[in-house]
Design a protein that fits this description.
- There is one protein chain.
- The protein is mostly helical.
- It has a domain of 40 residues.
- A two-stranded antiparallel sheet has the order 1-2.
- The longest helix is centred in the last third of the chain and has 20 residues.
Length: 105
């Protein structure tokens, strides 16, 4: 029984090793394909807005927090920045008061 199992294993191994692996030639895709004049011409036109138009559109609305999207990053308004800055400064002050943090004895 053991010889039959070894023989079958040997035949299977021969069939497995007999086939050759074929690698397909491929060219890597560019990381940043860029753009061209035709693609730029297909874009929607830029809609410019003046400060007066923004002011008129906000008339009668309550105050609100505003974020500005510049190059897919959000730049928060001054009030949000100040609130976060106060929190960080308070945390720094608490750490500096602890003598063990600064190595004082």
């Amino acid at each position: 029984m053991r010889k039959i199992t070894q023989a079958i294993s040997a035949v299977c191994l021969l069939f497995a090793l007999n086939s050759s692996a074929v690698a397909l030639a491929s060219s890597p895709s560019p990381l940043n394909p860029g753009t061209n004049v035709a693609r730029l011409a297909e874009q929607s036109p830029i809609h410019w807005v003046s400060v007066a138009q923004i002011e008129n559109s906000l008339a009668g609305r309550p105050p609100m927090a505003v974020g500005f999207d510049i190059d897919d990053t959000v730049l928060f308004s001054q009030s949000g920045l100040l609130a976060r800055q106060k929190n960080l400064l308070a945390r720094k002050r608490r750490l500096s008061e602890k003598s063990c943090v600064l190595g004082k004895k």
